[in-house]
Amino acid sequence: MNALPASRMDCLVVGGGPAGLVAATNLARYGRQACVVDRGETRGQRPRHPRRGPGVPGAQPGSRLLERILRQAEAAGVVVCRGVVETLARDGLGFVAEVDGVLVRARCVLIATGAIEPQTVACPLPLRRGHPRVWLHAAAAPAPVVDTMQAIRFARVPVDLAVALGARRAGDGHLEVDIRQSTCVPGLYAAGDVVAGLSEVAVAMAEAAVAATAIHRALPPNRH
Ligand SMILES: Cc1cc2nc3c(=O)[nH]c(=O)nc-3n(C[C@H](O)[C@H](O)[C@H](O)COP(=O)(O)OP(=O)(O)OC[C@H]3O[C@@H](n4cnc5c(N)ncnc54)[C@H](O)[C@@H]3O)c2cc1C
């Protein structure tokens, strides 16, 4: 993996799944310096048979698709780094991020942090007369008494970095964006599973292309 850029970049892309890599590739084609920082847990590797992907007849491992997208990004000049963006703050008109203890600066940021695998959790229902009681055992807390419980499956969406800057989340927990994939924070964009919509590779890539174009137009003009 590459080293983090020392100087202020045009766009820091948080997350190297299909959304992050395609956005960075498009930015590079617009002549913008983009760096992807990725923790390495993309769900893009998961689809074993991405039948929902356009132009993919039959089964194709998701990892092969992602590998190609990564190769394309690097060929376009995108810097892809393995790491975790731990914090994100405003820095004048731009942003400063802490990546594994190192500070990096960018004019714009794209949040492409995806979603985390759905988990099943047991949720207590309120006590009602006549229902059998169930003890829920929590490791660090006294076990509460409830009369019944329900199992709920939900995907957690990592939005904390954006929300800390003032970005809004929708009722379902995803980040709110406008038609240009812009959050309500100037310079902060989001694409892919982290925003509400269909969780599909093609959708993530389309949103990424829209975001890259909006970021390019928001930056000072260049020759493109
Ligand atoms: C089992 C399964 C089957 C699927 N099947 C299909 C299918 O057939 N067809 C289809 O189109 N789609 C399918 N999908 C959905 C598809 O995988 C997702 O829509 C797609 O991966 C979303 O891309 P993304 O870039 O938004 O997020 P992701 O691919 O999840 O990538 C996000 C990346 O951001 C990284 N990250 C998060 N936080 C940070 C941080 N703070 N710092 C650095 N990096 C960070 C994560 O580690 C991850 O690598 C499937 C998903 C699953 C789980």
TrEMBL record:
FAD/NAD(P)-binding domain mapped to chain residues: 9-124
Pfam families: Pyr_redox_2 (PF07992)
Alphabetized UniProt keyword annotations: Flavoprotein, Oxidoreductase
Top-level lineage group: Bacteria
InterPro entries: FAD/NAD-bd_sf (IPR036188), FAD/NAD-binding_dom (IPR023753), Ferredoxin-NADP_redctase_2 (IPR050097)
Sample GO molecular function, one term: oxidoreductase activity
Annotated spans, Disordered: 38-61
Name of the protein this chain belongs to: NAD(P)/FAD-dependent oxidoreductase
Originating species: Arenimonas terrae
